[in-house]
Write a structure and sequence with these properties.
221 residues, 2 domains, two-stranded antiparallel sheet, 5 helices, 8 strands, elongated, binds zinc ion
Amino acid sequence: MSGHSYETGKTNGSVHKAVCESCQIEQRHIVEASARSRWDSDEYTGITEFEVIRCLNCDTLSFRKEASNSEDYWYDPETEEYTSHFDVSVYPNRTAGRFKIDGHYHLPPDVRAAYEEVISAVNGGQPILAGLGVRVLIEVICRDRNAAGKSLLAKIDDLKAKGVLTHAGADILHKLRSMGNESAHEAKPSSDKQISLAMDVVDNLLQSVYIHPNEAKSAFK
Ligand SMILES: [Zn+2]
């Protein structure tokens, strides 16, 4: 028999380990609702499970998709068993474990939009777009702070002159700027380490320019 079939509730109540978006660490999640899509042909079976999962620690809901098929099984001579390969994805994406900074809601809308796209690119394993996104984000911050200058280099220096950026911060931003240049012109992916450092610097910048001043306003009324 060949064709598509669907079943619901097959995996309800089962438990998976996944990184929780709120707890920010791996937690046990229970399947609250599920639908199974199955494709059969004479020599091939593919199954994809679509699941709404809930963190057993904090009740945050996420979406989990697990795909497997009869071609992805292999024989392991050591255990004398067949092992299968599962392709798992979780939404919202959090595979690389880069979480939004606390207080990100204080960011102005255009800065926040650019920041969220960079986080998605970092977590989605897209190092070219992430490198490019860091550069775009710096451009947006410069525009928002009315940095003067024709080039991004001049604008970063202007932010330093205005006291928005420290000397060390400006130096690092210049390095990030060239990282974005390479992404844009040579489609050269940035390394995980470069991106991680870039995001640490960007987080610091966003905190000192936007988040801390806003939080100070409400804390010291
Ligand atoms: Zn949780």
